[in-house]
Design goal:
mainly alpha, 2 strands, 55% helix, 5% strand
Length: 146
């Protein structure tokens, strides 16, 4: 049974009468990459952003269409929460979908890492470990809200 990315690539090749080489040249990606993505029974990890962009160019399809097919082929279901006037961030969608596949213990590790990175990036914001919410240091009194 073909995965979503295989089906997308193969159907587009058939519709347009293209070869793997045609797609590769238009997308400026290796022919072997196009061939692999079109024939691999199982995609074990999400292709890199540059590969997805090249494949989308080569297939003359929207990037989101190719990204969704690749994610589905990897067993990842992307969720795009679009805010009007703000472009969707594909990295956020991939992170959210990937984290949902982790065990509860691994999700706690990821949460701790993200909290640590946020404290480093935004030292005025602390994360309340009990509620999982951000609390800003109280600017009026100079005290923390812990």
């Amino acid at each position: 049974m073909a995965n979503a990315l295989q089906e997308l690539v193969k159907s587009r090749l058939e519709q347009q009468g293209w070869s793997y080489g045609d797609v590769a040249r238009r997308g400026d990606i290796p022919r072997s990459t196009v061939h692999h993505l079109a024939t691999a029974e199982r995609v074990t990890r999400m292709p890199q952003q540059a590969t997805l962009e090249g494949l989308a160019r080569g297939l003359e399809l929207p990037l989101d269409t190719v990204r969704r097919a690749a994610a589905e082929a990897c067993g990842i279901h992307l969720y795009f929460e679009e805010t009007p006037g703000t472009p969707a961030d594909p990295e956020v969608a991939t992170l959210i979908a990937s984290v949902q596949q982790l065990s509860p213990a691994d999700r706690r590790h990821v949460t701790a890492l993200v909290e640590s990175l946020l404290r480093t990036t935004h030292p005025d914001t602390e994360t309340d470990a009990d509620t999982g919410t951000d609390t800003d240091a109280d600017a009026d009194t100079g005290t923390d809200t812990d």
